[in-house]
Amino acid sequence: KTPFVFSFMDRVTFFHKLVMSSRTSQQGRLQEFLIGRAIDISVRRTHLYEDAFAKLATADIRQRLRVNLINAQGLDEAGIDGGGLFREFLSETLKTAFDPNRGFFTSSEEGFLYPNPKVHLINEDYKIHFKFLGALLGKALFERMMVELPFASFFLRKLTSSGRGWVDTHHLASLDPELY
């Protein structure tokens, strides 16, 4: 209830220690050496989101992921996933998933993202997809990856508030500046 008792950097340090503890319990002590439990997946570059959803929507993605990418010609791309392929896969999958053309999110005139209020017309299983998108974002945090998604401030306020999540009127400028 009193987050500002501790400095931001202290809170970040504490968060990273919690994540490292959880990573060690999920992936083992030798995860940095690519030893231990892992989920192996093959995904087509041309269908990143679809393949990722089909293979990971019900998986515990706190485990390490080993990714094999398949090019447009249907051939395995050269390379062994030492962490770089996974990071590329997660980054590109998130970009694809949050693309307004996919329909789960839409963007304001300034390009800020927020959930599409008409998503139920596009995909009747949208709740499962939103849960998966949250899991992907959580995986990025878990792996200490920087994700650049321009979320609208009213949406971020709604996510980070407790209870009913009231949004102040000044946050609505990120939705419709002209109306604001």
Helix content: 40-55%
Which strand order spans the largest sheet, edge to edge or round the barrel? 1-2
* Main beta-sheet annotation: 2 strands, parallel
List unreliable stretches of 5+ residues.
none
The overall pLDDT average reads 84
SSE order in H/E notation? HEHEHEEHHH
How would you describe the oligomerization state of the chains in this entry? single chain
What integer value in Å does the Rg equal? Answer: 18 Å
The number of distinct β-strands equals: 4
Number of helices: 6
Task: Categorize the overall geometry.
Answer: globular
Task: Describe what you observe in this structure.
There is one protein chain. A two-stranded parallel ribbon has the order 1-2. The chain has a two-stranded antiparallel ribbon with strand order 3-4. The chain has helices spanning 8-27, 48-56, 84-97, 119-122, 126-142, 153-160; strands spanning 38-44, 64-70, 105-107, 113-115. Helix 3 runs antiparallel to helix 5 (126-142). The chain has 180 residues and is α+β, with helices and mostly antiparallel strands. It has six helices and four strands; from the N terminus they run αβαβαββααα.
Pick out its properties.
two-stranded antiparallel ribbon; 180 residues; 11% strand; 6 helices; two-stranded parallel sheet; globular
